[in-house]
Amino acid sequence: MKLKEKVENLLKAYDFSPKSYFSQNFLIDPKIIARLVEEIKIEKDDLILEIGAGTGILTSFLVEKARKVWAVEVDEKLCEILKKELGEKEELEIICQDIAKVNLDLLFSGKKIKVVGNIPYHITSWLLLFLVRKKWWKQMILTIQKEVAEKLTSPPGDKKRSFLPVVVSFYADVRKVMDIPPQAFYPSPKVTSSVVRLRPKKKTEELDEELFMKIVKAAFTSKRKTLVNSLSMKLKLPREIIKDVLLKVGLSEKIRAEKLKTEDFVEITKFFMEEKIAC
User: Fold this and answer.
1) Binding-site residues from annotation for S-adenosyl-L-methionine
2) Tens of pLDDT along 176-197?
3) How do strand 193-200 and strand 172-180 relate by DSSP bridges?
């Protein structure tokens, strides 16, 4: 039996209809699933967090190879399917809850976790910014909308450059692994997906991360404006102060936010800290 038929029969048996508002699109291509498992590089002592376990197709592969899997699923009906189809296993803990409400810091205190997930499109940006700042993860393999993957990997100067890729790239190295066509899912979404790999960056110096994010957010609020105008307007600081900051870190007063490297925003933040510029 083909995987698509298996998933369709499973959903029919449990009288379950995928909900578009939860972005419930289940992977049904065996070759892509095999590639995903290969990319995760599961070792016998690995601890894995799976976000959006769905029907448990990928979960079953994870449980076979890892020491422990925490499978998070917000849909109560899908949780019922997971529990009945996968059964009780020492290596598996099914968490029937919204990922935003799970106390991950408590759950993973003192642990190093690999994160895997087919991320619902409507929470992708929020979830990336939420997870990437955590100290307990050692790798993330995430399936996301291709458009978001292109943003995440956009270089300085790219029109897709925005708050999200700058902040994520401060915390992690990001690489696109592969694209997944709509027909690899059931039901098929309207867009192509991409798999991205994130690895945490080692921090070599202390930085006020809240200030860094505030500056980056202010910079991209009005992308058509120069950086001087955007920062002056949003941080409520005189333009002359912003010009002086850019001069000191070696940037033109006419530059726009999309042209900056993540390291440029770090240098601006450090100057704000050193000069105790309040904003």
Assistant:
1) 25, 27, 52, 73, 98, 118
2) 999 999 999 999 999 999 999 9
3) antiparallel
